[in-house]
Design goal:
Layout: H1 7-14, E1 16-17, H2 20-44, H3 63-81, H4 89-93, E2 96-99, H5 108-116, H6 123-127, H7 134-152, H8 159-164, E3 167-170
Antiparallel strand pairs: 1-3, 2-3
Helix pairs in contact: 2-3, 3-5
């Protein structure tokens, strides 16, 4: 006699892994949501509104502003993906959900690791933000490879998702109750 599917198995059969384009759309929405707060805090940290871009001058973007903006991004992603929503507002608008491979909710530590594993790749940008050199370019290439993995893996999994044993799922819309 064949075994009946458990609730977990039935859930696994209904989970659809998110496409690269939906994930990219969610990222863009999240960036737009955080743009004003990050920009405002950058001004408070010393970023000038109209930096001098004349030849021979370096870009005037303090490392402090980069670090503050990165911490805002980490807190935003960690808080939302480990919450009951299992998604940032951008992912929610794109009908995506972040979870373990079985669809279960992430712990705060795993959600932090998922976004935190990418943060060392920002370090060359903080240290060499004035001119592109090999460390900035190599970090950019690693970030690109991390994201492009979504297009080439069976479960559409980015590198940071593989490292943290997480997945991003497409969530079908909830049926609307008929009007009475």
């Amino acid at each position: 006699m064949p075994a009946l599917l458990s609730a977990t198995d039935a859930t696994l059969n209904q989970l659809d892994h998110a496409s690269l384009w939906r994930r990219a759309g969610a990222f863009c929405i999240d960036v737009l949501i955080l743009l004003l707060p990050m920009w405002s805090l950058s001004l408070l940290c010393g970023y000038t509104m109209f930096p001098d871009h004349s030849p021979g001058t370096e870009a005037d973007f303090p490392v402090t502003a980069s670090i503050v903006n990165t911490l805002i991004w980490v807190a935003y992603c960690t808080g939302f993906t480990s919450s009951a929503l299992q998604a940032t507002p951008g992912k929610r608008l794109m009908r995506l959900k972040v979870g373990r491979p079985d669809g279960s909710r992430l712990s705060p530590a795993r959600a932090f690791a998922r976004v935190g594993v990418l943060m060392p790749l920002n370090l060359p940008g903080w240290l060499g933000h004035a001119s592109p050199h090999w460390s900035v370019l190599s970090a950019d290439l690693l970030l690109t490879a991390d994201v492009l993995a979504v297009a080439f893996t069976r479960e559409r999994t980015a590198g940071h998702d593989l490292l943290c044993d997480t997945r991003v799922f497409s969530v079908s819309s909830h049926p609307v109750a008929p009007r009475t």
